[in-house]
Fold these 4 entries.
Entry 1:
Amino acid sequence: MAKDGGVSCLRRSEMIGIGIGELESPPLDSDQVHVLAVDDSLVDRIVIERLLRITSCKVTAVDSGWRALEFLGLDDDKAAVEFDRLKVDLIITDYCMPGMTGYELLKKIKESTSFKEVPVVIMSSENVMTRIDRCLEEGAEDFLLKPVKLADVKRLRSYLTRDVKVAAEGNKRKLTTPPPPPPLSSTSSMESSDSTVESPLSMVDDEDSLTMSPESATSLVDSSMRSPGLA
Amino acid sequence: MEKLCDYFFIYFCPNLMICKNLFIGIAISNKLYIFFFSLLLPSRRVERAMDTLIAQLQRRFCDFTISLYHQGFLDDQFTELKKLQDECSPDFVAEVVTLFFEDCEKLISNMARALDQTGNVDFKLVGSSVHQLKGSSSSVGAKRVKGLCVTLKECCDSQNYEGCVRCLQQVDIEYKTLKAKLQDLFNLEQQIVQAGGRIPQVDI
């Protein structure tokens, strides 16, 4: 599959790939938000994956907590080997899953050294106060009530850019890239979307990010201005 | 049928040859009168006839969609799914609901099998299957199916065998009904597109 832009063409074969938990991102560009989605239900995985892609995130969807840990390289307590490849900006997980619940997955992530800073969002179909409190106490960033809507994901996206900016500044040291130009104000960035090409970090994905749907256009352009690491 | 159409076009309306496949398509979808009508008329009249056809189909589509919501088959999560559909993924909703119906079939059959073990029914298994079904029906906006899942879950939690069996039968009927209705809806969409029209945005 060629480089994935913000809006992807999700064909049936891709859906099945997501279903089997085989569909992983190709070697990642550091300039796109990468979300790991965990849900045992195929239908929910497809929907959350689409919701995230439409808000211009790169998504890896897996069907269990164990697969998530495997993907993150946390299953045998070793640090992730290729840190660049496994850059994850957000983990969104279902609560009720057979085997390992979302809560248990949250705990394992927060206990790890490499991923404890990654925001974790829990989704659940049940609005149980004690459950929500427990998750938030354990360090969950947010709690979404299912069924998840576009507005919920857009909300996540908006606070994610704040976190990603901090992470991107950290990443820049690892990637040895030149310092970015001072961020432009969001109004000017919305007027001319070519402002993204002025960044020395601009990559081929510019074309991809510019071809997305209007409602996500503003959020992506906003984020690229706030986090210079993104193109 | 093809040959007959060719002869009609060649002898009566040579200028319409290029559109012949479109007309054949329309004819096959039960609008034969427009097909034969159009053979004898100049193309402006034909365009108007086509516009009438498109408008009719679009009206049917809107009415049908609204009825599905009003009768409780769908809720606003279905509307949310439609928002995720675009030119890049024009069949997203159809593909998701197809996966949902496959899920229904699988989970209902698991539950039926569990309930068949008379005297030794694994209510935990039934409970976890209905929980999954409730989740996916909620995610696609299948309102009636979801409602029945809630009832089924209650029967299961109270280990009410008769209640479970009855409820499961209703879930089975309900998902099949929804499947047929959505198939009709998607067929209407296809007819509109084939006639050259755009699928209207329906405000519920």
Entry 2:
Amino acid sequence: MKLSALQQSYLNRRSNSFRGSAQLDSAADGSVKSPAAVFWLVLHGVCCLISLVLGFRFSRLVFFFIFSTSATNLYTAPFRGAAEIASHLDVRSTPVTGAADSVPGNMTAVVASSTSRVVVGRHGIRIRPWPHPDPVEVMKAHQILERVQREQRALFGVKNPRTVIAVTPTYARTFQKLHLTGVMHSLMLVPYDLVWIVVEAGGVTNETASIIAKSGLRTIHVGFRQTMPNSWEGRHKLESRMRLHALGIVREQKLDGVVMFADDSNMHSMELFDEIQNVKWIGAVSVGILLHSTDSSATIQREGEEESTPMPVQGPACNATNKLVGWHTFNSLRYAGRSAVYIDDRAPVLPRKLEWSGFVLNSRLVWKDVDDKPEWVKDLDELDGAGEEVESPLSLLKTTSMVEPLGNCGRQVLLWWLRVEARSDSKFPAQWIIDPPLDITVPSKRTPWPDAPPELPSNEKMSDGAQTQDQQINKHSTKTKTPRTRRSRTKRRHDTKVIGVQASTLSVSEQQN
Amino acid sequence: MDFWKWVFFGFLCAALVLRIGAVELGRNQPTERISGSAGDVLEDNPVGRLKVFVYELPSKYNKKILQKDPRCLNHMFAAEIFMHRFLLSSPVRTLNPKEADWFYTPVYTTCDLTPNGLPLPFKSPRMMRSAIQLISSNWPYWNRTEGADHFFLTPHDFGACFHYQEEKAIERGILTLLKRATLVQTFGQRNHVCLKDGSITIPPYAPPQKIYAHLIPENTPRSIFVYFRGLFYDVGNDPEGGYYARGARAAVWENFKDNPLFDISTDHPTTYYEDMQRAVFCLCPLGWAPWSPRLVEAVVFGCIPIIIADDIVLPFADAIPWEEIGVFVDEEDVPKLDTILTSIPPEVILRKQRLLANPTMKQAMLFPQPAQPGDAFHQVLNGLARKLPHDRSIYLKPGEKLLNWTAGPVGDLKPW
């Protein structure tokens, strides 16, 4: 087939655009312009002008009007040259506005062989009438994904998953809702069976009960006779005793599974729960220690000691053969003397040497009369009577060498330890429900609307106590004059914002903090 | 007697070493063996079944070209170079051409790269022709059969048609001098001029180190339904759409761009390999040519390939039952792709995943260095071995000539 110059230069352009070389291996004929070619040229020029005027790709409309979205057709050879010319001129003439393909009928075809149904050349882009997702199909696809993931879990996940027994010591205070909700959500995401033992200092209260009731998990909520002391020392000691009490419950009820200590202000990753399934008797994970230090002097100190900044991680330390050789603990020397003593101190709260939350136990370790308990484990009853404080589950062991390091030998930090509490005088509404409405209001300074002068405290205000519900919400801008007149006529309900610290009607339900 | 004992002992050691060397990709997943003749064929050992003689061509045909542009070792046509290296040190190589079953000519025709890295095929016919002239004049084996017991690697877009544009490639046809030889190429489409009967289709080269560096834990749940990254419209060469991929990629985009099940875009994310391992289906549509490295990547990462290319011939089609592993969708059915995929029963999907998890499957798609048993090099040799013994009719009578050495475009005849 002879190649016209234009066709050749089309190929030239193509090769230029992505090959960067202008070599051609075929001989070029002299330029021959047939009348057909001239006709197409003229038609193409006309269509170009039309698209310039209309401002959009005229050709595409024509193309789609004339041709449905069905398969390609076969055309004979003469059209092929024209197509090349048209496409070539497309790009050369109007590269910016989008060239009009003036010859809509140009579907070239070079039939490779008579039996092939695949043709070379331009094809239509098949779009179905309503190209949007079908909700039924989306659901089916999600079911397929679910099935695939179930299969993956069966193949690669933990075989024979054990129940997770989470032990949480808690007590009712302002930040309890924040902390406990966090733990609750983490536990709700655990894909294994779970038992949540919540031990509450000061006895069972509705506060805690209402929070954990929403979890939908199997919970054991017990109270502990003592109330939580105000110092961190005392708190840590009491929490240890509460945890031992929970272990007693595990023993009593013969709960079977893996015991982990989920302190209510800690943050757990989901990988933790997968990892603890691997524990045989007692395991240790690395805990990240997050110190909330508001003390600016601490930062200055830190800069001076940069060379000795340790990792804020507590956990097992291994040697090169992944055997347990020791423990990483938190170096609290830098904070010596500046750490928090009382729960609401604005100073960093230090963890103990080894936190309970970094350990996981097989529940059978605390069972009574179990034959296959290893001999390096003490009985739980021995700890109860001990006068000394039980600092970590390691006290349950006669030798610490049998602790299994988890999480790639402690290299993965799977949970984070944090202690944040409110000021000791902070109050919060019972179960965080404002009912009845608070009567204390404080005037807001710098409102964007002009402040109305304070109303005189009138008796009607008192009697309207029930109706003033929307008063604090109602924030009409008031002018000085009209409200008075309005007030005399309209109902008092439209009285504007309540101002003045009517402290006499202090009736916030006080909770113990 | 002692000597043979040592030989045996040495053989045992070698066998042990080879076992340890094989990379295990399908680690713990119970895999399904492709039962029947097809699956077993993948594990055949070609050593002892054939002998290959490698012609010693002057380095201007291979080494010097590679020295000029070492990028040839990393692009998807690198199979021709690695095959040469493999054969040089393989036990199937023989230095005695009289006992050889197959003859290999190491000429790197796909190594003339543009600054962008794309190979230019314009000099390739002349290079090939010059190489064949050399071997026919220096050794008698070409003239004995006019190339019928020779094989060449032509991994370019349309194989031995030596052009990137399909119409031009069809026009040129397969190089006349290669009409009797066996071609090992990546291109395969039924009833196409550029696919000769008896050719061996191979997968495009995908760098194994890069693939192994991006493996993620197998228990990561597969949460993407359909995954694809690549062009839908080739704006530089086909701005209107309709030429590129025969409009199939554009159809995919137009129909499914707002479908949440289809994670498709033209991005180049760094987590491309990791994402493929989190997907259930991976689209492998045609581009300018029907084949693409996506198929290799999908198989290695356990993602079921959805092949949208009419009449395509997939790599090692006689050894790998692609119908059971992938999903074939006609180009005209692309608008119904979501219906097709969601109506596949889950058991079928799980079965396909088990077949894909088979390590022999993954190994057969790769060209690792150094070569490992069951990899693509060995599959090529298996394919060549299956064509033996040669039919007596390929041997020509002395003086008989079947090939026309002056056929083809005039430009091809210029010496290289």
Entry 3:
Amino acid sequence: MTEQNRGHRAMSLSAMEGLTLTCGNRRNLLTAFDRTNTESAKIRAIEKSVVPWVNDQDVPFCPDCGNKFSIRNRRHHCRLCGSIMCKKCMELISLPFANKLTSASKDSLSTHTSPSQSPNSVHGSRRGSISSVSSVSSVLDEKDDDRIRCCTHCKDTLLKREQQIDEKEHTPDIVKLYEKLRLCMEKVDQKAPEYIRMAASLNAGETTYSLEHAGDLRIEVQKVYELIDALSKKILTLGLNQDPPPHPNTLRLQRMIRYSATLFVQEKLLGLMSLPTREQFEELKKKRKQEMERKRILERQAALESQRRLKERRSDLAPRTANGEVASLRGGPAPLRKAEGWLPLSGGQGQSEDSDPLLQQIHNITSFIRQARAAGRADEVRTLQENLRQLQDEYDQQQTEKAIELSRRQAEEEDLQREQLQMLREREWEREREQFQATSLHTRTRSLDFREIRPFQLEPGREPRTHLAYALDLGSSPVQSSAAQKTPSPVSALEPVRVWSGPPALGQEPLPQSTVSQQSELASLNPFEEEDPSSPTADGTTSPPAAEPASGPSACVLKEYNPFEEEEEEAVAGNPFTNPDSPAPNPFDEEDEYPCPRPSSPPVPGNPFEEATCTNPFEMDSDSGPEGEEPIEEELLLQQIDNIKAYIFDAKQCGRLDEVELLTENLRELKRTLAKQKGGTD
Amino acid sequence: MNVVFAVKQYVSKMIEDSGPGMKVLLMDKETTGIVSMVYTQSEILQKEVYLFERIDSQNREIMKHLKAICFLRPTKENVDYLIQELRRPKYSIYFIYFSNVISKSDVKSLAEADEQEVVAEVQEFYGDYIAVNPHLFSLNILGCCQGRNWDPAQLSRTTQGLTALLLSLKKCPMIRYQLSSESAKRLAECVKQVITKEYELFEFRRTEVPPLLLILDRCDDAITPLLNQWTYQAMVHELLGINNNRIDLSRVPGISKDLREVVLSAENDEFYANNMYLNFAEIGSNIKNLMEDFQKKKPKEQQKLESIADMKAFVENYPQFKKMSGTVSKHVTVVGELSRLVSERNLLEVSEVEQELACQNDHSSALQNVKRLLQNPKVTEFDAARLVMLYALHYERHSSNSLPGLMMDLRNKGVSEKYRKLVSAIVEYGGKRVRGSDLFSPKDAVAITKQFLKGLKGVENVYTQHQPFLHETLDHLIKGKLKENLYPYLGPNTLRDRPQDIVVFIIGGATYEEALTVYNLNRTTPGVRIVLGGTTVHNTKRGLRMETIRPHLRRRSAGSGNSAGKGFSGRFGKTAMWC
């Protein structure tokens, strides 16, 4: 575009280049004390060849100041544009300055004085450095050997140009940080897809990639995220403490950069799936092999079961008569089997942090702090922690309020139930105690029962499940798993009977009461089933199969439902039969209703209703807190809280208040659970 | 033939051309609107554009570490601002894009100002119009005409916008215009002139069938903007007002702070994209589905996050959930407000009578209904005036015209004078005298039969009986039956084949009802692609506001209407023009 102007500028620049050369020559000549008239004539010729000089006669007055030229007031030619000025209106350019402009390279800069020098100081410095060289010649005006004579206009242009060069050389902090930020983002763009590919393949049980490699990559990517976060935060706070606060636009720029970095991290980090642990991976590999097979078998079983169920219903009578004995017999082996089934799960507890993708995420976030600390970035750590602390305080408060309210509600509910339950509770109390003490962590639920029946009831549910899960998880032979499947049905067939027969055996309770208790039990079955998918996480913090996001496990989880569904049906079917007075309680409805009785007995560790309704592992934990806490769960909770906090923080930043509310509510729930847990352990 | 895509591509290209590094986007008032219609902030942030500045803002700081992308209309002021900017550059390097053809002399003066050689690029990117929908554009000009003639400034702006559209779509069209409108003819000539002058720019690959530009005048169909609409986009525009995809909800009672202003953009909002052309009833059920869907994803109220599995699912779905909750709350609010307004203003009943006035010829029943509604206290003065306007337009020459009686009713109802004056204004604007074609009575045997059959079948939906006149015009055009004596070609050449690519431009503003018509035509007619544009998109309220601001202008400007922003969807769009 700017043809004219550019042409002009280009000319003056090329002129200068030529002149710097000639000047260089000239200096050489000077130092050699070999300066003759012929030389100076030559120089002049060169100078004139660069830019055509305006004819002296054409300019009677100085075009700038208007003074007439005379012998005293001599004409001077600008070496850059060739125009004529008087001496006052002429400027001189030092060689280093010219060099700097023509080469615009760093070394020329380094020799040159500071960029902010005014024209005058340029003169001064030139004088200082060059005077020695030009000592031979007088320092009179005519002998401007190392200076280039040019008009003020040309000099202005050159000075502007110099400023531009300086600006180019000088990179503000924000740019440096920003460049780093972009580099990190690029890295993520490169690595994240690679990692996701790896993780997907590993989670599917494939062996294309090695687990270690993927793990390393994951850590690498996470570090980059952390770096992005830290860098953008730094950009955000840049210059905030300066005395004249930065221009609002600068702040806006910083905010926007931070915002876009947050968006970036949000979008990408959340898409980062987790890796299986080594053991899980082994399982996954096995599972993958057997998956097809298993599926077929399970399908077959499903078909068989429906038939079996019919038969069993008919054969209900027999077990019912043997009720008491069977129950006691069952009591013995059940814990064992359970232990068998649950061991791998509890074994998984150790790795729970890593094995749960969710926890991994949490871990990432919290570990930012840890990593930052390790890396010695104390300031980041401080800011991170401060944020965390602030949030924590805030929500602690809210949580207490909520807890108070809840306990009040619980108390009310409790009153409703208490009367009915009083007698039962008294009777069952001691027996339960014993049972509880005898049983392990996982039988805790059972031990809370106030009736003998209870353990058995739950057992059938658990038993098949664990068997099956075990079979599925560890890839045991199909025969085994099918065998495991068989067990539940007969047992479950027994249930209604036991449920019904239990209370009378314990004491002659009025019918309505027994109905109630029975219903609650029935309800408890359902919760248990529901709990089941989540129970691995709840009970074992993370049982490998359930914790894995891969599709494989989900299939087996589904299958695991089978026995329970059956059970449930049995229960429904059995109810009217066993207890004709009861109005055919619908387990589903009850499930919803029965959360009420649950809180009725927080102080009584052995309250049946506690378990009966504990669909929520957290609630169960909290209610049964005294019975034995699992530290891991608490840790899990804490991590969960951290994670939610991170979300709240994010939502707050983005001003999405409704989300904040929702999240806060969740957080409160968690906190309450946690507090209860703690209270329990205390 | 997708205007949103065309503009978006321009913007993307600009940003890409400037390479990596922090960028600032320098715009003027109009280009800000143009860009914001096609790009969301977060989208543009991802492309390293962190600041958005107006070229005319004085409070800009020197930030040499930023690259400047200037997207400006080539107006005199902008060039002046740019010259000042280049003399004292605030940013390290400038990429300059003009939204239209810029004169050589302007380029020269810019070049002279660029002493520090900070300009890296100067280009023309023809995104000089507001892309509302893929097939709908607007120029956001209010009051483009004075009387029946163009305001010269607006004529040139309209010409620029229209030629920019043609350039961005790479079309060098044949031009037809509405003979009855002087404005249409003037505009057609101006466009033709530009095409001739900038013939180099308009040298595109020839298509078999040349594209067609049809220029119409709003005054030929003053009815459409006066009707209440029942499709989502049109309703929102009519009742709430859409301005550059933004909806101001601040007057909604009990609105939460972050919903004061919401953005409805089909580009980024799937629900809106899927529902903008559906009618109100369908929206209601879709909103319900959306809510249910959302409830499913949402952690349940009573059970909250009961297990770790729940929580895990929650956290994993959280980003999606966030996005969804934003969409849900936005649309629920908007639809809630719409239905509140509908019932508050008794709009269903009003609309039924409006439709009857527009589509049927039963004078006595129409008169009766109008009178009845005028007595209804729930009907706002605005709606009342609108009904009378419709009546006045339809039964202008009816033997037993009782307009004076209705005007009396209006006065008795307490309708302010400014509304009452609109009635005569609209008749002057879009009355029989002005119309080139007959809006109300069928013209030929086919149409008469059609209407007869329609009468037999009964109307499927009383609220959507009305078909904008544009539908018939376009239908004829597509079939090659549009009469040349009514819509002549500019120049000697005529189109022998049926047209394929059609740009329709309505002086005085298009409506969302017409946009819907075009959308449906595009869908149902294979091989035909239509883009609709107007000096604005009408909505009643904005017209009204215009009117209240400049009531004294009413007389003078009674000629051709136009309306503001996007908004004259309906009825008062026209009135706005006159006011």
Entry 4:
Amino acid sequence: MAKELPEDLVTEILVWLPVVSLLRFKCVCKSWYALITHQNFIRKHLLHNNNNSSALLLLQTSEDYVVSTFSYETLQVPLTQPVPPLYFEMRFGMDEFYVVGSCNGLVCLHANYGLYVVIWNPATKETKVVANSSLLRFPAYYRIDGIGFGFDAKTNDYKILNILSLYDDPDSIRNEKIVQTEVYSLSADSWRKGDSPPCFICSSLRGMDTYINGVASWEASVDDWKGILSFDMSDEVFLKTQLPGDVLNDSGRHFFVLNESIAMTVTICSEDDMYIIESSEVCFDIWLLLEVGVNDSWTRLFTIGPITGITRLLGSWKNDSIFFEKYYRQLVLYDPSTKEITDLKVGDGHIVSWQIITYTETLVSVKRGREVEEQDNC
Amino acid sequence: MANNGENPSPDVGGKTVKLKADDGEIFEVEEAVAMELQTVKSFFDDDGVSYDTVVPLLNVSSTALAKVIQYCRRAVELRAKSGDDEGANEKAREEREGLEAELVREESDEGIKELILAANYLNIKDMLSFLCRAVGDRIKNKSVEYVRRFFVLENDFSPEEEERTRNEVAWAFEGVDAD
């Protein structure tokens, strides 16, 4: 006699499935449609997948933008897809857009020029274009200092933070600068004016330097003070943390996430070279900030190197492994426990730029209200 | 899926527990193995229940129970092998994965569903987890029709509704295994 499984056991099976299968199985019957689109299941599936995060690689080649995802287990690139065609209308030139961040399977993209922001779920292929804020009227000139994207766990909402410098006169960029912020809420689909930050972003990325558990951070400074500016997506408050004195004279500082904390890498060149070239031997000192807002909680963890041929650190992944970029435009994965370096073969053709972020496949919807209990509307 | 009536005999020495399947067949099992079944553990956690009591497992067939006991016995052995040594742990983990793969490989769809129901009823978390994962692997590239047959589900969509739902994610139907 054929056995039927109760819904709770069906759920235990479905959480293992990739998003593409789940989307297809919405068609099995009405109860499965309701189950798969229900927020409870989406959250369960998300939590289940959080342990299996893959890496998302946004590649800009001379022809196109593509996105590849690859898994930690295989280090293969099983899936490459073009970025949704929506953005091809924005062709201004090189470095047209970049990834602000990724959270719960949603990826936030921003065009380099203007305030064109998109929230995208690569697994469900849904996109949402975020309407421009109407908060800025005067002055007419602005520069985006930083953009953050994250999740407010208290209200189950996704938010975008814009930090903008406004000028009366574009020619006197250094004078009369006012910094304003605004926060976008996906569930409200609207912007709201935010507090002024206590320091100024000086990060070369405009997307976040790090994003951890609802807190976005950037390298920042004000007068002689150098440190990290952080923004909590739930409380919508700014925090600042000063950098340790030891690193203030070093350049080549980059920030990334390690062990769910803000980590900083400082490039130290062994030789007295003015410029770091391919054959230079460099070391990377890795520091960890144990608690945001607590200046004393910076800890020097370990050093990588001396090593040659590495241009920059891109981010960390599972088991503390770290992505590096090697000369020229090659991606490698470094395992600090074994000190092994694995070359990852990515991208055909000439790569103009790339970005790598950790990413988890989810069913999270970008449309406001879609995840709410679905009535039997089939 | 033949039930060869295998009733795994317990090790010499050590306490044993008697488990009774739905058809009345009694399985005598080492205590350590029986305690892998949280349902059985809870049964004895109650005050005043003597270890001589036969545990009635009314929802589990003897076929399924035999397989569960066999799996749990080997899982207990493997757990005993691992310890602080990372090499030993790694080996034990690989062996356990081999054990899991072996268990599901030969099972028919009906058999695996029966094992899931048994593992759920007997409350064996690890077993339930890998069984569900195995079913997930079996169905993930399959068609909607295959899944309906597997789970014994009726298509209660109207043709228009089904068409509309399919079109929402037409790309998800590419590359599906032929039935």
